[in-house]
Amino acid sequence: MSASGLRSRSGLVKLLPYAFILPPMIYLMVFMFWPLSRQMYMSLTNTRIVNPNRGRFIGLGNYERLIEDPAFYVSLKATLVYTVLTVIIGVALGVVAALAIDRPFKGRAVARAILLFGWAVPGVAASLIWLWMYNERSGVFNRITELLGLGRFSWLTSTDYALGSVLAVTVWQVAPFVMLVVLAALQSVPQEVREAARIDGADGISTFRAVTLPHIRPSIQLAALLVAVWSIRRFDIIYLLTGGGPLGSTSTLVVKLRQTAFEGHELGMASAYGAVGLALALMVAAIHYTAEQRRMKRMSR
Amino acid sequence: MPALTFNKVSKTFGDHTVINAFNADIHDGEFLVLLGPSGCGKSTLLRMIAGLSDITSGDLLFDGSVANDWEPKKRGVAFVFQTYALYPHMTVRENIAFPLVMDAFRKWYHLPIVNIVARHRLMKRADIAERTLGIARQLELEPLLDRRPASLSGGQRQRVALARALVRNPDLYLLDEPLSNLDAKLRTQMRSEISALHHKVGKTFVYVTHDQVEAMTMATRIIVMNKGIVQQVDTPDEIYDHPANTFVARFVGSPPMNLIPASVGNDALQLSGKLAVDHAAPLPSRRHMTFGVRPEKLTLHPAGEGRLPAQVAVVERLGAETVIGCRLMTGEENNDQRLLEHDLVFVRVSGNPKVRIGELCSLDYQAGDVLWFDIDSGDRIFPGQE
Amino acid sequence: MMTPRKLAVKALRYTLIGILVVLAGFPVYWMAATALNVNSQLYGTGQVAWPQLQHLPDLVTELGNVPIGRWLFNTLLIASGGTVLSLTLGALAGYALSRFKFHGRGLVGFLLFMTQVVPEALILVPLYAMFITFGLLNSLWGLILANVGFSLPVACFVLKGAMDAVPYEIEESAIIDNCPRFSVLTMIILPLIMPSIAAAAVVSFFAGWNEFLFASTFLMDRTLWPASVGLASFVGQYETPMSAVLGAALVFSTPAIVFFLLIQRKIVAGLTAGAVKG
User: What is the domain range of residue A229?
Assistant: First the structure.
C-alpha cells in the first residue's frame, strides 16, 4: 500500500524516480554499456591498435578465424577447465570449512579470521606471495619436496602443473568467500528444527541431509554462480603468475583477450575472444536463474 | 482554514477497489472520525487527504478548490502516524523543529553538506527555538528535549509526534490511529488530551480509528466505512440511534445491537421463525427482515412476564451495570421449550441483578425502540414509508 | 562423559580445522616471514621459517628504495575518488529501486546484474579508445571513472537493502513536513543507514585499492601507478630484494585484510544480493 502510495500524482511527480535513477544509469551507459556494445561491434571489424577508432567491418571474419585457430580451443579449454575446477574445489572446501567452524569452539574467532585471509589479500599481493612460494630454486614448496626426496617441480612453467598451481591460488581466494556465504545460511538454520530432528532419532549425518543441506543449498548454488562468473572474469592472478603460459595452458579467454589486444595489436580479434567469454558468463547466469526459478516453483507447490 | 469536500472520490490499485466513490463534507473546525475495521480503506482515505496517496477519480476540494494534485505542503496539513514516525537520528528538539526548519530552508540549502550547516544554524534562530520550546512546554516535553526517540516511552513519543504536528500551526490535523500503540490506561488519558487540544486550537481534525469508543467520545461527526464503502456520515448520536444499516448497528456500540431475523405472517411478527410476538405497532410491509434493538432498550423480567421468553447464557458484571446474554426460546408452554438458534441477545441493565446462568427469564421492549433492516442488503427500512 | 565415537568425531573436526587454518594462513605468514628475512638467506642457504623482527630496520631501508609511498598515495586517491563517486551514484540508484515503481525498473535491475557478469577485460579496449579521445588516458580520473562501473552496483545493492528496512512512514512524515525528496534521501534516509554506508564505502574503496587490469592498461606514467601496478612490476624483475617486494605487498595487503575482516558479513550480503535480485 505504501509503496504505491508514494507513487505519482501528476505528470511531474511521475518523473521523480527518474531524477534519481538517471544519473547512475547514464554513468553506466557511458562507462559500461556503450564500451561493451562497441566491443561487440569491434569483434566484427578488423580494428587494430594503431587505428582504434577506424576499423573496417568484416562481418564474422574474426569468428571464422577463431574457429580455425587451435589457440582458441586451447584457450576455451583452459577457461572451462579452470572455471569448473575452481567451482568444484572452491565450493567443496568452502562448505567443509563452513561446517567445521559453524559450531562454537575455543579460538573460533581467530580461526575464522585466518580462514578469510586468502579472500582479503589483494590479488596482486597474493600473486607475489605465491610466485615466491612457487619459485623453482628457493620457493618453499620445492624446499619441502626436496626434503621429502621428490625433487624440484616447475610449478608455473610446466604444462603439467601450471594450471593446477594457478588453481590453488584461486581456490585460496574464493573458498573463504564460499565459506562466508554458507556460514550465513547455516546460522539461519532454525535450531529448533535441528533439535526436533535429533529428538526424532536422526543421527548427525541424516540430520544434515534432511535439515541442514536443503537449507543451505540455495546459498551454495549462489556461491557457485559467483565463483564461476568470477573465474571467467579473473585476470590479475593468472596474468601475473603465468602470463597465460606455458604454451597457453593457463591462457583463459580474458587473458588471451588482453594479449591479443595489447601484444598482438589485433583489437577486432581480441573482441571476438571477449564475446565468447561474455557468452560463457551469461550462460552460467542463465543456468543459475533457471535452477532458481525451478526451486521457487517447487517451494510454492 | 479548509472545509473539505469529497466529490465522487474513489481509489483503486489496479483491479482492486480500495475506496468506492462517495460524497462527503468535512466542515471547518470539526473533529471528524473515520471509523471502520482494519483494511476498510480509512487510512488510505486519510492519506489521500494528506496528498500521500493519489486519487483515482473524483475531486477532493479544499475550500472549493480542487486539490487532487496539490503537494502535501500546499495543503497545510499535519499528520500524526500510528507508529509516530519520529526521526530516530534527531533529538526531540530537532524532531519538533524540523517542520519549521524545512519551511525556512531556501532552495540551495538542500545541497548535501550545506543542509547540515543550514539545519544547525536554523535550529538556533530565535523564532524557531522559541516556538519549539513553547510547544514542548505545552506538551510537557521540556525535560526530554535533548533525548532521542529511542529512549522515550510510547506515551512520550506520542507527545513528540503531536508536538511536531502542532508546531507549524496547521489548519488541518490528520491523525492515523494515534493511540493504538498505547496501553489502555494511557489511551483513555490521551483521548481526553487530544479532545482538549482540538478545543484549544479550534482547527479541523480528521482522526482515523477502528475503536468505536474513541469515535463516540471524540468525534463531532463520524464517517463509518467498511470494505471501501462509506456506510454512514453523521453525528455520533445519530449513528448510534439511527444506524444506516446492520454493519453500522453492529460496529458501533458495545455490546452491539441485537439483530434477530424476523418474518411477518398474517400481520403477526415472528422472531427467528418460531417465536410469535405481539408487536403492538405497525410492521414493515414485507415478509422477511431483521429486527434490531439496542441492549439497553431491552428490559429483563422474570420468566413469563415479558414477551420474549429466554434463558440466561452469559452474565458480565461490570459493577455499575450488568450485561446479560440470553438465548430466546419458543413461546410454547410445554416441557421442552426449545432454544431458538441464533446469536445471543444481549440486555444491559443497571446495577447488579441476581441472575444465574441457565435461569429462565423473559425480555421485553417498546415498539418505538425497534429498528428494521432489509434481510439481504442490511439497509435500514422504515415501516409505513416503503 | 563422551563416548569414544563422539571423541573421535571431535578430534577429526579439530584436525580438519587445523589443516584448513594452516592452508589458509600459511601464505600470509610466509609473506611476513620472507619480508623479515635477509635477502642473502632467501636465495642461498634457505630462508629462516619465522619472521625475524631484528631485520625490521633493514626492511624499512629496503622499502625506502622503492616508491611504495608514492604508489600507495596514488592507490589512496584512486580508491577514495572511486568510493565517493560510487556511493553517490549507488545511493541515488538504491533509493530509486527501494522506493519507487517506475517503467524500466526491471531493465535497471538487469543492467546492474550485467555489470557483475561482464568481464572487465571486455570493455578494456573500447574504454582505451574512448580515453584517448577524451584525454583521460594516463590519468587517475579516467581510471576512477572506469573502476566505478563495477563497484557502483554492489554499493547500490548494499544501500538498497538498508533503505528497504527504513519505514515508509518516516519518509512520508518528512514529506508532510515540507522536505523535498532529495533532502528526504540526504537528511533522513542516509543518516539512518550509516552502518551500511560504511560497508558500501569499504567495498568500493577496496575494489579501487585492489584493481589491477585497468590501472596497468590506462596508466603509463610510473609516477601515476597505484601500488597494485607498482608491485606487479616486480614480477620477473630481480633487482629489488624479495624481502622488500613482499614487505611492500604486506603493507599493501594489511588495510584490505583489516577492513575485510571487520565488515565481512556486509560485503557478502552486498555481493550476493546483486545476483539474487538482479
Answer: 70-300
Domain range B4-250, CATH architecture: 3-Layer(aba) Sandwich (3.40)
In chain C, the number of structural domains is: 1
pTM of the model: 0.86
Among the CATH numbers 3.40.50.1400, 3.30.980.40, 3.30.365.10, 2.40.50.140, which is that of B256-381? Answer: 2.40.50.140
Domain boundaries, chain B: 4-250, 256-381
Residue C182: which of B87, B103, B110 has the nearest Cβ?
Answer: B110
Distance in angstroms (rounded) separating the CA atoms of residues A290 and B5: 53
C-alpha cell at A36: 561493451
Inter-chain touch B110–C180, beta carbons under 8 Å: yes
List helix spans (H) across B39-142. 42-50, 72-75, 92-104, 114-124, 126-138
Record: contact C95-A20, CB cut-off 8 A: yes
Adjacent-strand bridge partners of B380: B373
What proportions of chain A, in percent to the nearest 5, are helix, strand and coil?
75, 0, 25
Quote the ipTM score.
0.88
pLDDT tens per residue across all 278 residues of chain C: 567 888 888 888 899 999 999 999 999 999 988 888 876 666 665 666 777 777 778 788 888 888 888 999 999 999 999 999 999 999 999 999 999 988 988 899 888 888 888 888 888 888 988 898 898 999 999 999 999 999 999 899 889 989 998 999 999 999 999 899 999 999 999 999 988 898 899 889 999 999 999 999 999 988 999 999 999 998 877 778 888 889 999 999 999 999 888 888 777 776 676 555 43
- C13 within some domain: no
Give the structural domain span for C271: 63-277
Residue of chain B with shortest Cα separation from C170: B85
Neighbours of chain C (3+ CB pairs under 8 A): A, B
CA B92 vs CA B96, B142, B151: distances in Å: 6, 9, 10
Residue C128 lies in a domain: yes
Q: Which of B274, B303, B298 is nearest to B362 (CA)?
A: B303
Residue A178: which residues within 8 A CB-CB, separation 6 or more? A90, A91, A93, A94, A95, A98, A220, A223, A224, A227
C180 touches chain A (CB under 8 A): no
Omega prior to C126 cis, within 30 of 0: no
Classify residue B205 by its DSSP letter.
E
